[in-house]
Amino acid sequence: MDTTQSVVERSAIRKVAIRLVPFVALMFFINYLDRTAISFAGPNGMNTDLALSAAQFGFASGVFFIGYILLEVPSNLALHKFGARRWLARIMVSWGIVSLLFTWVGNVEQLYILRFILGVAEAGFFPGAILFLSLWVPARHRSKILALFYLAQPLTTVIGAPLAGLLIQQHGLFGLAGWRVMFFGVAVPAIIIGIIAWFYLADSPAKAKWLTAEEKTWLTGALEKEKKETAASNKHVSVRTVFGNGRVWMLSAIYFGFIYGLYALGFFLPTIIAGFEGIYGTKFDVFQKGLITAIPYLPAAFALYFWSKDATKRGVKTWHIAVPALIGGLSIPLALFAGSPAATIAVITVTAMSIFAALPNFWTVPTQFLTGAAAAAGIALINTVGNLAGFSAGYVTGWLKDLTGNYTVPMFVVGGFMLLSCILMVALSRSGKISEGVPAEALDPAGAGHHSEP
Predict the structure, then answer these.
(1) Eight-class DSSP state of 173
(2) Which of 17, 187, 236, 403 has the fewest CB atoms in 10 Å of its CB?
(3) For 83-94, what is the mean pLDDT?
């Protein structure tokens, strides 16, 4: 083993982890908070002020994903063409401006329109961020880097839910209802950070002034070698053929199940907590409800970090993705029979831990066989299909709740989709069309080993 090479590798990866990951994670934090702000606004005045039924609230939550889906793949191809720095900054400023307009929404029709346009504005951000980080680190370090990035999502609720509660309590500020103050407060940071991103991010290691010449050489060389090897072993996977690639569609279906669970919880957990008052006779103010909403997501952040750390050590295995899907699928319907607020939140916590433990490891799989523009298109396609679940989860959950009068059937549907993800992941692995990851410790520092398909 080349000791000098190992020192350069560790130094380069550490700098990427410190310099880029927290900033891109902050962008993701704001992104997820802006798209789920409606979940806090709904039960805290918006549903009443705009006279929304559960189905209308669910449709407003989900219609975001229609606009998002329409431009997801084109946006990620544009990012590949114009560069991540410019494109991610442009996306962020665009959605920040649209988010700001929610402050003055006047009726359900305007709410639908703004949610749709917000989806259009945000299209491409998440897969673009995944692709951007993937272009900075070799495959063997990707699980760790993506896990650090993904921590922003559960922490969005841990920090964002109480923050949203505090903003909603500022009722009357600027002459606005509390839920309108909340929309204003979470929109402005997107515009500010988007402008900063234009100057802060770099498109590739070669353009990073904060890396030494040796670090640039090692990163660029390792990434280029990996790119050539992946392309050589998957010559048939191009932008044109990615839409007919069975592995891409199977991964899309697996991701659909995870995202269905994620957004069913994200959009309706504050409403379920608000319903504790009628079911159990509890009394919580808006800030307390925000804190309760945050409870499942703090353990989820720990589960994400340590599960992904194990995946980095062992190499991402099928069970790193399938086992959390199984546990999540079985646990979420159990929340219906918990019998108390504490027990309900405890079961939902297990579900949240399962979803977040699986997601960063899942995103290491597509880059086993996709590279370049095909990676941009494939990752965007998987995210697009997954985000169909974002629409479905919001609308179907609300519609079934209105139809049946409770959340029993909707939660069994959530569990069913997550169990399907587990089954499909195992089937994909047994088909031999994806490889079991190689532990980082088993690889030479020069990058001879990688996670490509045999």
Answers:
(1) G
(2) 236
(3) 91
Taken in order of first residue, the domains within the chain and their CATH numbers are 19-204+233-436 (1.20.1250.20)
Long-range (24+ apart) CB contacts under 8 A made by 230-237 are 230/367, 230/368, 230/369, 230/370, 230/371, 230/450, 230/452, 231/371, 231/372, 233/369, 233/452, 233/453, 233/454, 234/369, 234/370, 234/371, 234/452, 234/453, 237/369, 237/370, 237/374, 237/378
Name the pTM for this structure: 0.73
Segment 315-321 shows an average pLDDT of 87
Express each pLDDT in 145-162 by its tens digit: 888 888 888 888 888 888
- Mutual angle of helices 408-430 and 246-274, in 10-degree steps: 160
pLDDT tens column, 275-301: 787 777 788 888 888 888 888 989 999
What are the E-state strand segments in 59-191? none
Task: Provide mean pLDDT across the span 185-211.
Answer: 92
Transcribe 1-31 into DSSP letters.
Answer: --HHHHHHHHHHHHHHHHHTHHHHHHHHHHH
Q: How far is 45 from 421, CA to CA, in rounded Å?
A: 36
Residue 438 predicted with pLDDT over 60: no
